[in-house]
UniProtKB/TrEMBL annotation:
Positions of the HTH cro/C1-type domain: 385-407
InterPro entries, sorted: Cro/C1-type_HTH, FAD-dep_OxRdtase_2_FAD-bd, FAD-oxidoreductase_2, FAD/NAD-bd_sf, Succ_DH/fumarate_Rdtase_cat_sf
Protein name per Swiss-Prot or TrEMBL: 3-ketosteroid-delta-1-dehydrogenase
UniProt keyword list: FAD, Flavoprotein, Oxidoreductase
Organism whose genome encodes this protein: Pseudonocardia ailaonensis
Pfam families: FAD_binding_2
Keyword Flavoprotein tagged: yes
Cofactors, names only: FAD
Length: 560
């Protein structure tokens, strides 16, 4: 009896998950000569990538270089370090103030992002186009030496706004679904074995022999419908199975504050946290996610959201808390803006910004401009229950508090402060005064290129700050309740710069790799720019796939 006779199916490299990270790992391993088996627990491929706008943030990419632009490695690493580890970043210190592992992971991203994209292009899975119009999210920072040219998308699709908005293509699918279909087509042509409805539940290991208690990964126990399948990984297993966005217990245990939903695929339930934990993996970055805002009532109805609030729509619009006060730059990018929901109010001993209220006038409500970031503000004539209205600010406050009373059992009892209407009026008066100037000294609204890029045309020519316009003196006025959400989480087992999962003592677990949202993201707390989620997934999937294929074939000692 041979080693493989024990198993139901075998391959050199087994990839768990079928999003951008999983396909990148599969293509990389196949290009290195390994046989590859891809397992997806859902009944369809793509995971959260299939719900995405299919954007990739790729520094130093070949399309950028072809235009004569130089993406300097040192300056790029300074940008990554500042955003990912602001509490540690020291520009004049060794490794920029980061630990060796933190720095190595950022360096690995920069060094491998462009080769990963090139490899996907060379194998026929991806034809990239370059967006030279959209600025980086942090193009205003001095460390960003290349504010335009890192955004890559599948060429041949419609406009940039369609891609970012995730609008449907002609066949009824999203941009991400279309891209995943292209990945699948090419993978099958290359002989990669892809199986859906296969849920990995446990790693099968052998004693490693290098240290007491250490193990090496030999395969997986997988559940397929009502049966169990034993899967042999002759060289390694690569997990790319998504985060824990839809595991309510893990969200409560690990995230830095309450969230109400997210646009991750429903299969993102933190499987790898448990599976890797059983073999002694070290966890990291568990409090962070790719943050976004969501319309509360939409998320309560469907926690796996489709469209999040990426840029609150409108110029005569403010976000206020339950006290009626502005607390954030409404036009700041979603990852940064959404974290204001986690502010702890020591005086009231509560998350005073747990819910925010997007308040706008009728000029915003009746504007017919179909901005891709208009959601959740409905188009004129469209009636939705989650919009609360009033002829005056006082009527709006009464209606909003009545709605909160209906939702109290699902929000921890959040209600408006008794002075909400009075404070909201004062907030709007202050906002109207600032709207006539070029800058917003309170929150910096409209200060960065991305804020102005995403708003669409200003209401009138010559506005000093096109993101701000005075409110109408009379109603009606409208409000939508917002809460914290996420695209997916970004914590899990820690990896090294080769994609190897690390044990609790910092040593690599032999034969176990990870990439994408199921691991402790090399981006740490940062969301570098549009497509950073898929850029990191693609890059570390590529790294992990290559390294997994280079592992030696190890004999298996037998099932116990």
């Amino acid at each position: 009896m041979t080693d493989d006779d024990i198993w139901d199916v075998a391959a050199d490299v087994v990839v768990v998950g079928s999003g951008a990270a999983g396909f990148a790992a599969a293509f990389a391993a196949q290009q290195e000569g390994a046989s590859v088996l891809m397992l997806e627990k859902a009944g369809f491929l793509g995971g959260t990538t299939a719900k995405s706008g299919a954007y990739f943030w790729i520094p130093n990419n070949h399309l950028l270089r072809e235009r004569g632009l130089v993406d300097d490695r040192d300056r790029a690493l300074r940008l990554l370090a500042r955003l990912s580890y602001p509490q540690a970043y020291a520009p004049d210190a060794e490794r920029l103030g980061l630990s060796a592992l933190e720095y190595d992971l950022l360096a690995a991203f920069f060094d491998n992002a462009a080769p990963a994209l090139q490899a996907m292009t060379d194998c026929g899975a991806f034809k990239p186009g370059l967006d030279m119009e959209m600025p980086d999210y942090c193009a205003d920072l001095p460390e960003d030496a290349v504010p335009y040219g890192r955004h890559v998308f599948p060429d041949g699709w419609r406009s940039q706004q369609d891609i970012i908005a995730g609008r449907a293509v002609d066949d009824g699918g999203t941009r991400g679904e279309f891209m995943i279909a292209e990945f699948e087509r090419q993978a099958r042509l290359l002989g990669i074995d892809i199986r859906t409805d296969h849920r990995a539940v446990r790693l099968i290991t052998d004693p490693d022999g290098s240290d007491e208690g250490a193990v090496s990964v030999a395969g997986l126990e997988v559940h397929h419908r009502t049966g169990t399948v034993l899967v042999r990984a002759r060289r390694a297993v690569v997990f790319a199975s998504g985060g824990f966005a839809h595991n309510a217990d893990m969200r409560r245990q690990f995230l830095r504050g309450p969230v109400f939903g997210g646009c991750a695929a429903e299969s993102s339930t933190g499987d790898f946290v448990t599976i890797a934990g059983e073999v002694g993996a070290q966890l990291g970055n568990m409090g962070n996610a790719w943050w976004s805002q969501i319309a509360l009532e939409m998320a309560l109805a469907q926690p796996s959201t489709i469209r999040d609030v990426f840029m609150p729509y409108g110029d005569s619009m403010v976000l206020v808390n339950r006290f009626g006060r502005r607390v954030v730059n409404e036009k700041m990018v979603y990852n940064e803006r959404s974290q204001i929901h986690f502010h702890w109010d020591a005086t009231h001993r509560e998350y005073s910004n747990l819910l925010l209220f997007q308040v706008y006038d009728d000029a915003v409500a009746t504007n017919e401009f179909d901005n891709p970031y208009r959601v959740p503000v409905p188009m004129p004539g469209e009636s939705v229950r989650y919009v609360v209205s009033g002829e005056t600010l006082e009527e709006l406050a009464d209606a909003l508090d009545a709605r909160l009373a209906e939702l109290a059992d699902r929000t921890g009892g959040v209600r408006l402060d008794g002075d909400f209407a009075e404070q909201l009026r004062a907030t709007i008066t202050r906002f109207d005064t600032l709207a006539g100037s070029e800058v917003d000294p309170d929150f910096g609204r409209g200060d960065s290129p991305i804020q102005r890029h995403w708003i669409g045309p200003g209401r009138r020519e010559g506005m000093a700050n096109p993101t701000m316009h005075p409110f109408a003196a009379t109603g009606p006025y409208h409000a939508i309740i917002l809460g914290a959400g996420m695209l997916d989480t970004k914590g899990g087992p820690r990896i090294d710069a080769q994609g190897r999962v690390l044990g609790v003592r910092g040593e690599p677990i032999r034969g176990l790799y990870g990439a994408g949202n199921c691991i402790a993201s090399p981006s740490a707390q940062a969301y570098w720019s549009a497509g950073a989620t898929l850029g990191v997934a693609l890059t570390f999937g590529h790294i992990a796939g290559r390294a997994a294929a280079a592992e030696p074939v190890r004999a298996f000692g037998g099932l116990s």
